[in-house]
Input
Amino acid sequence: MAYRVEIDQDECMSSGRCVADYPAAFAFDDDELATVQPTVGNLTDQQILRAARNCPSRAINVYDSNGNLLE
Ligand code: SF4
Output
């Protein structure tokens, strides 16, 4: 994965979609808000873009290597 991934926890509605679909990359913290795991790098670019697009609250932000927001 060449992208950088961040979660805006102010936007996360705890749907669990990212955690369910990609448990190696996302996990809930103690407040049941999604966090990015260090192993997110194991996902392909396509998988990370899919995770961002599937987030119902658009809380997953994906940046390319130039810092441009992709999703
Ligand atoms: S899919 Fe989006 S709203 Fe659902 S847990 Fe993940 S970051 Fe939060």
Remarks:
- The chain is about 20% helix and 20% strand.
- The longest strand covers residues 4-7.
- The mean pLDDT is 96.
